[in-house]
Structures are given as structure tokens and as C-alpha cells.
Automatic annotation (TrEMBL):
<feature type="active site" description="Proton acceptor">
    <location>
        <position position="160"/>
    </location>
</feature>
<dbReference type="GO" id="GO:0004318">
    <property type="term" value="F:enoyl-[acyl-carrier-protein] reductase (NADH) activity"/>
</dbReference>
<comment type="similarity">
    <text>Belongs to the short-chain dehydrogenases/reductases (SDR) family. FabI subfamily.</text>
</comment>
<comment type="pathway">
    <text>Lipid metabolism; fatty acid biosynthesis.</text>
</comment>
<keyword id="KW-0444">Lipid biosynthesis</keyword>
<feature type="binding site">
    <location>
        <begin position="21"/>
        <end position="22"/>
    </location>
    <ligand>
        <name>NAD(+)</name>
    </ligand>
</feature>
<feature type="binding site">
    <location>
        <position position="15"/>
    </location>
    <ligand>
        <name>NAD(+)</name>
    </ligand>
</feature>
<dbReference type="InterPro" id="IPR002347">
    <property type="entry name" value="SDR_fam"/>
</dbReference>
<keyword id="KW-0275">Fatty acid biosynthesis</keyword>
<keyword id="KW-0520">NAD</keyword>
<feature type="binding site">
    <location>
        <position position="167"/>
    </location>
    <ligand>
        <name>NAD(+)</name>
    </ligand>
</feature>
<keyword id="KW-0560">Oxidoreductase</keyword>
<keyword id="KW-0276">Fatty acid metabolism</keyword>
<dbReference type="InterPro" id="IPR036291">
    <property type="entry name" value="NAD(P)-bd_dom_sf"/>
</dbReference>
<feature type="active site" description="Proton acceptor">
    <location>
        <position position="150"/>
    </location>
</feature>
<dbReference type="InterPro" id="IPR014358">
    <property type="entry name" value="Enoyl-ACP_Rdtase_NADH"/>
</dbReference>
<dbReference type="GO" id="GO:0006633">
    <property type="term" value="P:fatty acid biosynthetic process"/>
</dbReference>
Length: 271
């Protein structure tokens, strides 16, 4: 169902790789709610070309940008304002990548230049995006900036590896920049801490299939899907959440507040 919640609002959506991506579902949902946007991803991720179908479906233009490059980001922000005809109301940062995870390197045996690369892409890029927006004065008052995170920032999940540290940094940046964006520009900044979700990035984590099933059984409402996340993000981009800022918002069917569920207890039998 569409509610016209984002009618007339403009923004940038980072991170739609394929139709499983959280950013892809969000772009479709934002479009349904009347928002218009520029789609962006790393030039290398666009070689697959799938993003073209999303652009066509949502009537959007695509501007490639490596989120670790200040120059790319500056260009993206200025071009987006030109294309959309004014300042922005929403930005979605839906970017993550760990080289240590990708190459199966254990947390106790990190290769630090890979660690640095993963941090740059997954965490520092959020600061760069916001600094670019801030300096260009690109956000309208009461705009909304959202990044995606995972609960491994608060609690240990062994196979999440160095992404846990990247997410902790990302969440801290949301608070720190959220202060200045709130004070100076009346813009809100939040992170959504999403359930495990079967996407390219998600499935790169070792033991993902078992883990997503475990999380499903541990969450009273079941795991939040990418589609559910798109709905939640729309609410955060809308005018209905104008005083929510500097928060890490759990969107996980109750997983983060559950000690143990009956289903999990039952898997251990009577012994
Ligand atoms: N899938 C999950 O289980 C899960 C759970 C919680 C949070 N998240 C977070 O959600 C976000 C989106 O991931 P997803 O699950 O939709 O997977 P995805 O693989 O579809 O999206 C990750 C995106 O990051 C982009 N990216 C990588 N390097 C980049 C760079 N240098 N510049 C610009 N873009 C770059 C990729 O091209 C891709 O589009 C990530 O922050 C991820 O950590 C995912």
C-alpha cells in the first residue's frame, strides 16, 4: 500500500546491486511513495548492469561513485541536486564490504591493509558522504540520512569478523555527525540495525544460512526482510519521524531484546 509519504521529496540511494539488495527494495518503495532520487554505486559494481533496470523502473538517473572517493562524492552530490532540481531530503547509505570476510581470513589473523580497506568502505564512507553533504549545504531542513548496520556492533557474532568493528564505528559516526547536522541544518541521522537478510553482502558471511534460521527462531516476529526494511526506511525519510535522530534503531523482529525463545530451548531437549 502506498501513502504518498515522500511526495515531492528528493534524495540519493547508495548500494543497489541487485534485486535482493536492501537499497534496491528501498528505491522501489521510495518511488511508490512519491519520492525521486539518483541511484549510485561503485563503478565496479555497475558492470553487472542490473541497476539499469531499477533506474528504468523508478525513472531515476544513475551516477557512479566510489563511496571512498571524496571527489566522486562531491560530483555525485552536485550532479544530483542539478538533476533533481534542488536540495535533498533523504540519503540512504547501504554499503558494506570486508576484505577479510571475503577472503575467509579469521578475526584473530586479520590482514590489516584489508581491515583498513573494509573500514574505509563500510564505515568511513558514511562520514565522507555526510561531510560532502554538509559542506555543499545539500540537505533541506528536516531532511533524513539513514545508514544500515548490524547488531554485531553491540554483541559478538564470531563469523561477522571485522565488520562488527566497522559497524560500531558507523553507528558512532551517525551520533557524532547527527549532532552537527541537527544543530546546524535541522537534519536527522540514524542507523537501522537490520535482521540478517539474504543479499550478496549478507551471504558473504560464513555460516549465514544457519544463522538466519537461528535468528528467525529467536525473533518473536520473525526476521525483518529487505522489504520490511524498505518500509521502515520510508518512515524515517517521511515527515512523521522528524524528531528521531542520532539513534541506532533495531529492526529485527525483536531478536535484540530476546534472551532465548521456546523454539531454541526445544532444540536442546529435556537434558
Ligand atoms: N544482509 C544482511 O544480513 C545485513 C544485515 C544488517 C545490515 N546490513 C547492511 O546493509 C547494507 C546493504 O547491504 P545488503 O545486505 O543490501 O547487500 P548488497 O551486497 O546488496 O549491498 C552492498 C552494497 O555496497 C556497495 N559497495 C561496496 N563497495 C562500495 C564502494 N566502494 N562504493 C560504493 N558502494 C559500494 C556494493 O556495490 C553493494 O551495492 C550494508 O551496510 C550491510 O552491512 C546487511
Amino acid at each position: 500500500m502506498a501513502y504518498n509519504l515522500l511526495k515531492g521529496k528528493k534524495g540519493i540511494i547508495f548500494g543497489a546491486l541487485d534485486e535482493n539488495s536492501i537499497a534496491w527494495k528501498t528505491a522501489e518503495r521510495v518511488h511508490e511513495e512519491g519520492g525521486s532520487f539518483v541511484l549510485t554505486n561503485a563503478p565496479i559494481a555497475m558492470r553487472m548492469g542490473q541497476i539499469n533496470a531499477l533506474a528504468e523502473k523508478t525513472g531515476s538517473q544513475i551516477i557512479p561513485a566510489d563511496a571512498t572517493s571524496e571527489e566522486d562524492l562531491e560530483n555525485l552530490i552536485s550532479q544530483s541536486m542539478e538533476i533533481l532540481g534542488g536540495k535533498l531530503d533523504f540519503v540512504l547509505h547501504s554499503i558494506g564490504m570486508s576484505v577479510n570476510v571475503r577472503k575467509g581470513r579469521h578475526y584473530t589473523d586479520e590482514k590489516y591493509d584489508w581491515t583498513a580497506k573494509g573500514w574505509e568502505v563500510s564505515a568511513l564512507s558514511f562520514h565522507k558522504v555526510m561531510q560532502g553533504l554538509y559542506k555543499a549545504d545539500a540537505m533541506n531542513p528536516w531532511g533524513s540520512i539513514v545508514a544500515l548496520t548490524y547488531m554485531a556492533a553491540q554483541r559478538t557474532f564470531p563469523d561477522y569478523n571485522d565488520m562488527a568493528d566497522n559497524k560500531a564505528y558507523l553507528e558512532s559516526v551517525a551520533r557524532s555527525f547527527g549532532y552537527f547536522f541537527g544543530k546546524e541544518k535541522q537534519v536527522r541521522v540514524n542507523t537501522i540495525s537490520q535482521s540478517p537478510t539474504p543479499t550478496t553482502a549478507g551471504q558473504g558471511v560464513k555460516g549465514f544460512d544457519a544463522f538466519i534460521n537461528y535468528a528467525e527462531k529467536m525473533s518473536p516476529l520473525g526476521n525483518a526482510t529487505a522489504q520490511d526494511c524498505a518500509d521502515y526506511t520510508v518512515s524515517l525519510f517521511s515527515d512523521l519521524t522528524r524528531k528521531v535522530t542520532m539513534q541506532n534503531l533495531f529492526h529485527d523482529g525483536g531478536f535484540s531484546a530476546t534472551g532465548v525463545s521456546q523454539e531454541i530451548i526445544e532444540t536442546f531437549g529435556d537434558s
